[in-house]
Design brief:
The protein has helices at 21-31, 40-53, 64-74, 92-99, 144-154, 207-217, 249-259, 262-279, 314-323, 339-344, 352-360, 372-387; strands at residues 12-13, 57-61, 82-85, 103-106, 129-133, 157-161, 169-170, 173-174, 183-187, 200-204, 221-222, 237-238, 286-287, 295-296, 302-306, 326-327, 361-364. With 390 residues, the chain is of the alpha/beta class. The longest helix has 18 residues, at 262-279. Bound molecules: pyridoxal-5'-phosphate. The site of pyridoxal-5'-phosphate (PLP) has 14 residues, from α3 and α4.
Length: 390
């Protein structure tokens, strides 16, 4: 396809963590402290997260996957309940419903933002529906007000999967402040805004959910509201079936240090987006991500969409971009098309706009430490690749 040589060439991934001296120092201090896990850094991180995001409570988990599981548990979801979500997400979002025995129901997406289309949700609501999990795809907020209105009308809960969107806004609210939702999930995977190695969190303003999440994270064990007689200082009770979903203190230290730079890193991502918007304005090959007036995007990803008829050659274009040193990725394979979901009975063609989006979408490099030189390289290589397909 491309005629690059075998000499070692520059390769720029689609996403990457940024680790500073301050991060290294924070982790080293945690390692030398009395606690590697279950220590004071957990609460410190939680308090800082809640304060920064604007929510009352934060509960950290060892991943966003376990945090989302915790969210479904805290709401008391189980067999016979339905959860409406988007197919344009990482599998962890809808898997959370499956973990508690509930049934994911997929609503199709807006063809430009890639977000769940709020106008498609109402027709899917049944007496079994309990929860909506919207995902702020790529860092662009969903229309939260429209989703909240539906939730109020049908008495449903809302848990935002905000793994892409810390630092983004919706109208006058910050993503994470739970203005429109019962809970918000975050991920601290290295490609996300705040890296902790692995890790995640639930933000909430509801004390009842907060208490349940704390217990769920550590085996369902508690020393509060004991059901049997307290027979001594050693005594605790396991009252529900929880898991070991705890974050370590080393990870909390890294997350806390990274959290301090959130605004700065989101600012860098927005500058990179501006660079791309200018460089790719009016290009004949692909569409750029839109930005609705109600949101300020925090750009976890920069998703481009192939114009007709280039989507028919996506496989070749994708491979050529990687050959040319651009570590592109696709977000996402529509969840219900995976074999596991197919075996559950979800039909192909269920969400045609999501399947079309998948045909077209390519995520190009977007992370705070990209330099001007890197960006010039990315733009030059992308144009070079696309010219060879015309
Ligand atoms: C990354 C991600 C998750 C899962 O996060 P982990 O911390 O890796 O478990 C869930 N949902 C979305 C939208 C994500 O991007």
């Amino acid at each position: 396809m491309s005629n690059t040589t075998t000499a070692i060439q520059k390769y720029i991934p689609y996403g990457r963590q940024e680790i500073t001296e301050a991060d290294l120092k924070a982790v080293a201090e945690a390692l030398q402290s009395d606690y590697l896990t279950q220590g004071p850094r957990i609460q410190e991180f939680e308090e800082a997260l809640a304060a920064k995001m604007g929510a009352k409570y934060a509960v950290v988990f060892n991943s966003a996957t376990s945090a989302l599981h915790g969210g479904c548990f805290a709401l008391g979801l189980g067999e016979g309940d339905e959860v409406i979500t988007t197919p344009n997400t990482f599998v962890a979002t809808s898997n959370a419903a499956l973990y508690v025995g509930a049934t994911p129901v997929f609503a199709d997406i807006e063809p430009d933002t890639g977000n769940i289309d709020a106008a498609k949700i109402e027709a899917l609501i049944t007496p079994k529906t309990k929860l909506i999990i919207p995902v702020h795809y790529a860092g662009h907020s969903v229309d939260l007000e429209a989703i909240r209105e539906l939730a109020d009308k049908y008495d449903l809960s809302v848990m935002e999967d905000a793994c892409h969107a810390p630092g983004a806004t919706y109208k006058d609210s910050k993503i994470g402040d739970c203005t429109y939702s019962d809970m918000v999930s975050l991920s601290f995977h290295p490609v996300k805004h705040i890296a902790a190695g692995e890790g995640g969190a639930i933000l909430t303003n509801r004390a009842d959910l907060y208490e349940k999440l704390l217990v769920f994270r550590t085996h369902g064990i508690t020393k509060k509201n004991m059901q049997h007689e307290n027979v001594g200082d050693w005594y605790f009770e396991m009252q529900v079936l929880g898991f070991n979903y705890r974050l370590t203190d080393m990870q909390a230290a890294l997350g806390l240090s990274q959290l301090k730079r959130l605004e700065e890193s989101v600012e860098k991502r927005r500058k990179i987006a501006d660079y791309y918007f200018e460089a790719f304005a009016g290009n004949p090959y692909f569409d750029l991500p839109p930005e609705r007036a109600y949101t300020q995007n925090s750009y976890h990803l920069f998703p481009i969409r192939l114009k007709n008829p280039l989507q028919k050659q996506k496989r070749e274009i994708f491979a050529a971009l990687r050959d040319n040193g651009i570590g592109v990725q696709t977000h996402y394979i529509p969840v219900y098309t995976h074999p596991y979901y197919q075996d559950l009975g979800y039909p192909m063609g269920l969400c045609p706009l999501c399947e079309d989006f998948y045909q077209r979408e390519i995520s190009i490099p977007m992370y705070p430490s990209l330099t001007e030189q890197d960006l010039a390289f990315v733009v030059e290589r992308i144009f070079k690749t696309f010219r060879s397909f015309n």
